[in-house]
Amino acid sequence: MPELPEVEALAQFLREHAAGAVVGRIDIAALSAIKTFDPPVTALSGRDVTGAGRWGKFLGMDCGGLWLITHLSRAGWLRWTDNPSAGPPKPGRGPLALRVHFFTPEGATPAFDLTEAGTKKRLAVYIVHDPADVPGIARLGPDALAVTEAEFAALLGAASGRIKNVLVDQSVLAGIGNAYSDEILHTARISPFATAKTLPEAKVSALYDALRTVLLDAVTRSVGQDAARLKGEKRSGMRVHGRTGLPCPVCGDTVREVAFTDRSFQYCPTCQTGGKVLADRRMSRLLK
Asked: How far apart are CA 257 and CA 106, in angstroms?
């Protein structure tokens, strides 16, 4: 799933490549992706693109006061092309959900596609006058890269859940998903199942530092990959996430996994749990 670093890279790409262009034809290939109908998608055509933004994992393009907002969900992406096909795409079960064409001051006619791999289609598109009109944005907590250490400590102090769950709860902190929460906890050497509100002050400080280090490093890598032209390999910078069975690059212990019905997360026992292996929920109850 695209998380804060990847979505920030896409927003930066749109600022650099779409701002100043005029929105042309918009092709809808998956009507189910469109979540708002007033204003209609066609209201964007003919408008100047004046900027782009990010709210947690939501991406938005400002078309002169009318916003195109998308949530890319688990398998979505924005792909830019300088030479889009002239004809409209055929609606179907393929990956394409929406195509937006542009006219640039230089006379070019690029476009971007919103695509989603797989059969579970959850990518969402909203056309709104104010990003806060999108229900998911209205529910967001403070942005993970904007929160201060004092604010972060207060958020954790008010949260009774496991720290892993708190970090990915968008109403608490916006932008962090499964992958980067694994990396942040590993960097801070904290168990995924530590209780948020009982973390010692030193651990909270270490977690905040890890959060900023991991996310800012990932933003730098993602922006540098010209994200909308070539989807960067998100896992290339990962130390534990998606590396089940491989050695931890810090201590050499085997990276372990806890799996749920439709997701899993990874951790290092030596670095994070004092050597204790957490039970996989597919097999038994979680060990505290």
From this structure: 51
